[in-house]
Amino acid sequence: MRKKNVGKVILLILCALMLTVLWRHKIQPANSGEAVLTDASASESPEGTTKDIPEYHGKPYAEIDNGKPSFSEKDLTTEAFEHYSNLDSLGRCGSAFANICPESMPDEERGPIGEIHPSGWQVANYHDLIDGNYLFNRCHLIAYSLAGENANEKNLITGTRYLNTEGMQPFELQVLDYVRDTGNHVLYRVTPVFEGDNLVASGVEMEALSVEDRGKGVSFHMFAFNVQPGVIIDYLTGDNRLDPDYKNQSEISSEETPVSESGYILNTNTRRFHRPSCESVKDMKEKNKVSSTKNRQEIINDGYKPCGRCRP
Length: 312
Description:
Order of helices and strands: HEEEEHEHEEEEEHEEHEHE
CATH class of the largest domain: Alpha Beta
Strand order of the largest sheet: 1-8-7-6-3-2
Largest sheet: 6 strands, antiparallel
Number of domains: 2
CATH topology of the largest domain: Extracellular Endonuclease, Chain A
Structural class: alpha+beta
CATH superfamily of the largest domain: Extracellular Endonuclease, subunit A
Number of strands: 14
CATH architecture of the largest domain: 3-Layer(aba) Sandwich
Radius of gyration: 23 Å
């Protein structure tokens, strides 16, 4: 009888331990309007995420996991922090993770970063194709405006102009505007994804979650593609060349829309002007969008520059 009783006690203890483990690791239920948090932990792997990355289909970014970030309950904190992974043996960056808040934001102008040469860095000028001329930028994983980290080699990758301005910037501005407006905190993680021994990342995984309101203000999980329309990139080395089959937006518009467009669309944030049919107009925030019937030279005289995609 004593052996049977001891066995029952041991069984009850094991069951209790299993229930405790399951409770601690289960997916936490979200309140109305709040993001769902998992028990996933932040990865320092320079090779990036193990998640399935969507394929590029002509848009600068795509959702991962239906847009739900993978932060855990233990990540929810109002303490400011920044963490930048060490470079791997190929000199590649890993995840950058920070709690963005007013205290983390810089109070001085950004300095030079030309001394940093991220993995795969190349100087390539495509002045007839790319707004800003150069194919590659030194892209901050966590934008300088958010954390004040500038010439930090652990925070800079070789990224296309398209990745920088079309892929990452809309989400950086979303976080920036939210923190400035509320003074709250935003968990923010950016992970470059490298395939094999490639020196240039295929893109970056971007996650963000506002802390105080549990994602009601900011919540996203995106993959921004490190591509450049019109340019073929060798991601192993960073070598690049013009895509002979590429047609820019202005060429497509002239072929498919023989009737000329009237007026321009101004982006008051980037100080660029666009054709109304430009793809960039679709991604533009309404508060930054202004229609203008002025002619091209008048708009330039007002301090605006022509878009590099639609070339108005």
